[in-house]
From TrEMBL:
Occurrences of domain Cytosol aminopeptidase (ranges): 332-339
Residues noted as binding Mn(2+) 2 in the record, renumbered to the chain: K252, D257, D275, E336
Gene3D superfamilies: Leucine Aminopeptidase, subunit E, domain 1, Zn peptidases
Keyword Metal-binding: yes
Signal peptide start-end: none
The protein's name in its UniProt record: Probable cytosol aminopeptidase
Enzyme Commission numbers on file: 3.4.11.1, 3.4.11.10
Subcellular location: Cytoplasm
Gene Ontology cellular-component terms listed: cytoplasm
Gene symbol of the encoding locus: pepA
UniProt: Mn(2+) 1 binding residues: D257, D334, E336
Keywords, alphabetical: Aminopeptidase, Cytoplasm, Hydrolase, Manganese, Metal-binding, Protease
């Protein structure tokens, strides 16, 4: 299991089989009052200079408090659920060598148990490394395989199941993104989607390269034709009985991105197996919806291709015909994600869902704009607002960006309906990409006067990977950013009001 098993206990200091205890405490400026009934901890904390600063972590000798080895982690001043989630994630990620860890939060925070359980499940994730000495190192640095969290006895099984499903979804994304492209072709990723949904009430369909060509998916075909590993399109449909809402998810699944004939520099190509993160997230969210039996129809579209240079590859200047008949001049073959997503958005629109969300590691420009922890969010105001509320509830960082009409003029091509990139300009690259995608979102009804389907675009090019140091519950590497927010958004039925 890539993340620890989570259990709950009504005991303040759970000791049912635990090997170590984690205690999360607030800022200790108030002394004994900050610890309430557990003020006997204070001398031990003062002895090591522990102040309860946010995410500060230390081992402490406290035999008067517990018979187990004890670690403490700081929540800072006036903690909320996000602080608890981060702190417990830090502790479980940092405290190694124990099979079962018990967690107690000494702070007055609503649903602190849930935030602690989420932090433990996320922070305890570990990828099975390809290193030859991985087993020996894992034995020395192993994270807990089981975490027992103090919680009220009133917590029901459904609440805990939601925590577990979210953690499993994030772990699935991290596992897939960490898999080298050598072992994850478009066909293999499509097969993984089938395998991981086979035992759930999810109907699946896969388009191979022949079906894609026959049905006019020119974006996916155009991006994938330079590779010896042909493209795929996967549709996953979870349709619970009596569903009143329908959410469609579209994910970018570039299993490796060289940039095509617009070849990336060597350093920029390292790690480009992560370019399928959006498709992995769509798979994980559809699975979670089915596991939790959410009363919402969820349709996932995984748009999968290798972007490789060869004698067959799409050239700058070529014109592709997309699934809705729109012609696109390819001015930059490294702006390929929007081409496969365009086909996916057209396909998703044909079902006329209540809302469409696409998710993609789309533009380097979003990293320049927002850094590596915030997800860029674009689209229709009400739908964007609904997603931002979901992100706030789950503690994920997201920021709304505009789609200005004046930039839309730059989409015009001399030879086709649109061009896929504004070559030679460094201005507003993320917004240009969002405006391009907007053109492929369909309408709720027939006719040009029918309103467009509400739509949200998530650019996770910065937030999908943590290339620096680990922080909170996030390790270095894939983050699974927006997965839990998307599950929350779907659980709310994708409501846009």
């Amino acid at each position: 299991m890539p993340h620890p098993e989570i259990a709950l206990s009504a005991a303040v200091f759970p000791d049912d089989g635990a090997d170590a205890l984690v205690i999360a405490v607030t800022d200790l400026a108030e002394g004994r009052d900050a610890l309430g009934d557990h003020a006997d901890l204070l001398p031990a904390l003062e002895a090591i200079g522990f102040t309860g600063a946010k995410n500060a972590f230390a081992r402490v000798y406290a035999p008067e408090t517990a018979s187990l080895p004890v670690a403490v982690v700081g929540l800072g001043k006036r903690p909320d659920a996000r602080a608890v989630r981060d702190a417990v994630g830090t502790a479980v990620r940092s405290l190694t060598g124990f099979d079962t860890v018990a967690v107690t939060v000494l702070a007055d925070v609503d649903d602190a148990w849930r935030a602690a359980a989420e932090g433990a499940a996320l922070g305890g994730y570990a990828f099975s490394s390809y290193k030859t000495d991985a087993q020996e190192k894992a034995a020395k640095r192993r994270r807990a395989s089981r975490v027992v969290v103090h919680a009220p006895s009133s917590v029901d099984d459904a609440e805990l199941a939601a925590v577990r499903a979210g953690a499993e979804a994030v772990a699935l994304v991290k596992d897939l993104v960490s898999t080298p492209a050598e072992w994850q072709s478009p066909a293999q990723l499509a097969e993984t989607a089938l395998e991981r949904t086979r035992d759930l009430p999810i109907e699946a369909r896969v388009w191979d390269e022949k079906a894609l060509e026959e049905e006019g998916f020119g974006g996916i075909v155009g991006v994938g034709k330079g590779s010896d590993r042909p493209p795929r399109l996967v549709r996953l449909d979870y349709v619970p009985e009596g569903a009143q809402r329908h959410v469609a998810l579209v994910g970018k699944g570039i299993t490796f991105d060289t940039g095509g004939l617009s070849l990336k520099p060597a350093a920029s190509m390292v790690g480009m197996q992560e370019d399928m993160t959006g498709a992995a997230e769509v798979l994980a969210v559809v699975r979670a919806a089915a596991q939790l039996a959410l009363p919402v129809r969820v349709t996932g579209w995984l748009c999968i291709a290798d972007n490789m240079p060869s004698g067959r590859a799409t050239r700058p200047g070529d014109v592709l015909v997309m699934a809705d008949g729109t012609t696109v001049e390819v001015t930059n073959t490294d702006a390929e994600g929007r081409l496969v997503l365009a086909d996916g958005l057209v396909a998703a629109s044909r079902d006329r869902p209540d809302v469409i969300v696409d998710v993609a590691t789309l533009t380097g420009a979003i990293v320049v704009a927002l850094g590596t922890r915030y997800t860029g969010v674009m689209g229709d105001d009400e739908a964007v607002g609904a997603f931002l509320r979901a992100a706030d509830r789950t503690g994920e960082l997201a920021w709304s960006l505009p789609l200005p009409e004046y930039i839309a003029e730059e989409l015009d091509s001399r030879v086709a309906d649109l061009r896929n990139a504004n070559v030679g300009s460094r201005a507003a690259g993320s917004l240009f990409a969002g405006l391009f995608l907007q053109r492929f979102v369909g309408r709720r009804g027939d006719g040009e006067d029918a309103p467009r389907i509400p739509w949200v675009h998530l650019d996770i090019a910065g937030s999908a990977m943590s290339s620096g140091s680990a922080y909170g519950y996030t390790d270095k590497g894939p983050t699974g950013a927006t997965v839990r927010a998307l599950i929350d958004f779907v659980a709310a039925g994708g409501e846009t009001r």
